[in-house]
Design goal:
alpha+beta, five-stranded mixed beta sheet, 5 strands
Length: 135
């Protein structure tokens, strides 16, 4: 006969985000680690930072031992309802088109930084007007 486990939504799990009431999700399983907060070798801040999201990556990156994985079973309270997890949209990276030749690069820079050429022309005109008056 299969064992029935309680199903929790991510919203329910995220509501338990305090020192004395802390639930985390790892590999689709929900753990109530409230009583383990003071004993956690990484400190309670690590566990609190893992609430309200799937902490599987953080758990795996920390390189937990086999003993730590076995200890998790003591805190298991249910499974995560996969339908309640919002998917994070994938980040799209667009490459900016680079000009082909140096002339095109110069034209593009001139368009982008129009103040520099205008300033150079203005100073040149002012200097030539001043020198022409002295003669």
């Amino acid at each position: 006969m299969p064992t029935l486990t309680k199903i929790y939504s991510m919203e329910e799990v995220a509501a338990h985000n305090k020192q004395d009431d802390c639930w985390i999700v790892i590999d689709g399983k929900v753990y109530d680690v409230s009583s383990y907060m003071d004993e956690h070798p990484g400190g309670d801040d690590v566990l609190l930072a893992a609430t309200g999201k799937d902490a599987t990556d953080e758990f795996e990156d920390a390189g937990h031992s086999k003993t730590a994985r076995e200890l998790m079973e003591e805190y298991f309270i249910g499974e995560l309802d996969e339908d309640s997890v919002q998917e994070i949209p994938e980040l799209k990276i667009y490459k900016k088109e680079e000009p082909k030749d140096s002339v095109q690069k110069l034209v593009d820079l001139t368009k982008q930084y129009w103040l520099v050429p205008v300033s150079v022309i203005t100073v040149s005109v002012a200097v030539s007007v001043l020198f022409s008056r002295k003669k």
